[in-house]
Every structure is written in C-alpha cells, then in structure tokens.
Amino acid sequence: MAKQTVLFLGHVDHGKSSLFGKILVDNNKINLHSVDKIRKLYGNNFLSRLIDEFDEEREKSKTMEWSTTLIDNIEFIDTPGHSCYIRSTIDALEHIADTSNITIVCINAGDFPIDEHRQTKELVILARSIGIKEFIVVWTFSVKPTMVQRKYVKKLLGKIVDEYEIDVYSKNNSTIELFNSLKTYITPIQRLEGNYSFPDVSCEVMLMSTKKIVVSTGFKAIIYINKQEYDFEVTSSGFFVIGNIPERRKIKIRIKQPPQKLSGNLRIILRTENLTIGFGKIV
Question: What confidence score (pLDDT) does residue 97 get?
C-alpha cells in the first residue's frame, strides 16, 4: 500500500496532540522509557508532550509548528490549533495537497459551539479548499456530543466517513480500533487510481448452488454487506465445488473497495452475476 498521510486538525486545546500521543502509547509505538520520562515531568498532560519537537512547545503545552512522524508506513502530521500559528498549519496542508491523506478533526464537545471558536471552522475551510472532502471526527474528551452538535459538525465537514468518541485522558478508552482502521483506510485518491490493497477477510459461509460451480484461488464473485454490493476474489488455497448439497466452509476473500469497517459477525451474501451461492458472516 502507498504511504498514508494522517492529518490532525482542530481548535486549540481540543486534543490533537494528546490523541496522537495516546495512539502511540495504546499501540506500543513509542519507547516506554521515553513515556515514563515525559510523564514524570508533565504529569497527566504528558500525552500531548510526547511528540513536541521544541522545549518551548513542551513548556507552554502548545503546538507551534507542524511535525511529522512515520509509523507503520503512515505519516502522522500534528498541526497547531492556535490562530497565531495558522501559517504552520497552512504549510502542513500544502505538504499533503498531492498525497493520499486522511484528515482527523478533533473536537471537544464540552467546548461549543464551534463557530465561536473560529479555528476549527477556519481550518476545515482551508482543508476543503485544497480538495479534502472526507473527514474522520474524534470527540476527544469525556463530554458526549449531543445530536445538535453532531448535526452542526456534519454540516460543517460535509462527508464524515467515520466517527469515534475517545476520551484522551481515560485509560478505559483505547485508540487501537482507530489505529487499525487508519492502516486499512482507502483514501479518495487511492480509490480513483486503484492504488491500494486490503487485507484478506475470513468468512464462515453456507454454500449451495443449483448449478455446479468450481471455486479456487482467484475465483471472483459479488458480496453483499449491509445491502451494498462489492466485488471480491477468493484467496484461500486449493479448490472445492459448490453444488446442490449445502456445505459449511471457512474461506478467505479479498474485497475490492470495501466499507470502512469490517467487524466480526457481519452478515454477508455471496452471489455470482445471476445466482446466489452462499450466505454467512465475517469472522
């Protein structure tokens, strides 16, 4: 897969650096000795200091310059939220203008409305001006967003492809699901160019057909997930025959342009162009 770029945007003190720090800690992507050292110096606010490059940033607890960190072929970009450093955020946006990118907007539901903050709204407008059309929203603190807040954010951002509630200061809220999702996320540019891959998915299915069908590695058909149609191919080794006697099997498939989340126990239907050949679930 081509390198992804994950950009953090949001108002000052809405948890951008803390969320990134939590991703590093939860997913064991940072040296524990470094974490303990920063924790002793800065206490509960240590997460936001983990990626600060300058002493002044750590002392003031404020991101002043955009910075990049490469983890598992993902380039994470942290940006300033304060209006004084908008030039740095613009530089970061220019950096990703021609790359496959994922844009995460961090929002504190306890600090609303956004239009009074100025910066979230301004940063989103800047992002959309360079062609960013899809966003992931992370509500970063313990206050749960209301329906009014969600509707406002939806109107501001346009297309929200995923949404998380992750209290960056709570040990009970993990970023593991978010990080795994980022590793397999297919950006609009990748969809357009076909420059992507997706890991194999294991399925448990009941197979049956009125016509004899031979299935082997590379066999292509159609899968229905949540009433949406996707192309897939079988990646399991060997071959087997689908006939008029029902047979339960576990197979591995690769789905082309799949939905964002493929959770366990998701119900599926398998079809050829004009014939249903099986049903079951993703495991």
Answer: 63
2-15 pLDDT, tens per residue? Answer: 467 899 998 888 88
Whole-angstrom distance, CA of residue 79 vs CA of residue 282: 37
Among residues 159, 176, 193, the one where a domain terminates is: 193
Structural domain boundaries, residue 229: 201-282
Decide: helix, strand or coil at residue 267: strand
| Distance, CA of 36 to CA of 17 (rounded, Å) | 17
Closest to 182 measured CA to CA, from 9, 17, 18, 20:
20
Place of tokens 């066999």: 219
Of 156-170, 206-220, 251-265, give the lowest mean pLDDT range.
251-265
> Are 97 and 162 part of one and the same domain?
yes
Do 77 and 9 share a domain, yes or no? yes
Q: Is the pLDDT of residue 243 over 80?
A: yes
The model carries a pTM of 0.69
Q: According to the model, what pLDDT value does residue 159 have?
A: 86
Buried b (16+ CB within 10 A) or exposed e, 172-194: eeebeebbebbebbbbeebeeee
CB 21 within 8 Å of CB 38: no
Total domains, the chain: 2
